[in-house]
Probable metallo-beta-lactamase superfamily protein
Amino acid sequence: MQVHSFLHSDTETYTHVLADVKQQVCAIIDPVLDFDAKSGRTRTTSVDEVVEFVKDHGWELVYIIETHAHADHISAAIHVKETLGGQLVIGQHITEVQKIFKQIFNFDTSFRTDASQFDILTDDGDTLALGGITITAMYVPGHTRADMAYLATDDEKTVVFVGDTLFAPDVGTARCDFPGGDAKTLYQSIAKLLELPEDTMMYLCHDYPSKGRKYCPTTTVAAQKLGNIHVKDGINEAEFVEMRERRDANLEMPRLIIPAVQVNIDAGHFPKPEDNGTRYLKVPINLLGE
């Protein structure tokens, strides 16, 4: 098993490539599309580095895995799929998120809330085969209702891709104030992750390093239990919930939440072009951010 991590500097997001190098197969986890919110222009410059990396190694892309419908970046899953193939994977509870945001964006009846835009829907305990690697889905809601972590195991080691649940120990944990989020649920989900063996490597979806620390895509269960500023050993559920809700009440909405969510719940598809050939996104006025 090999894991290679690529930092998208604009959104501080990590895209990971998980590979069985012997059988020449891989998965790409949480790919990011470049998006300039000022101009509304998209580019694939960053994700193409990942695509070229896979091509250069001669690996077959089997899965494109989304840990959840992200609110801080737009998924590049469609570009990756068109370029490399692969099946698009997300947790089955994405249907709940689709229903919530269909109402928020007032999408018409043509918008599907059955998750049929995706190829594979996972539930807690489901497994995917990637050569000699077994990928096991872990349902870890709280940040949203649909978050999944993915545990990858082969004969040599086990790693876990935690999505937006835990960040580096000096950063803490994910916010829970989006529609459908819940701090108590997140605490319980994190507890499941921290039950993994202490030497388990955790691959982060984001890193927001404190001053003087370089970006790093990984941490361990042991490091989280020892030093996570929000949920280290000794912090109970009530303390976490009080801290998380107080902190979330003062956070601004993510810079890209409005374009990101409406695209990501549709598996990375932008709306169809209108009669002038241009695609448009919607902006709800005075609805989010309270």
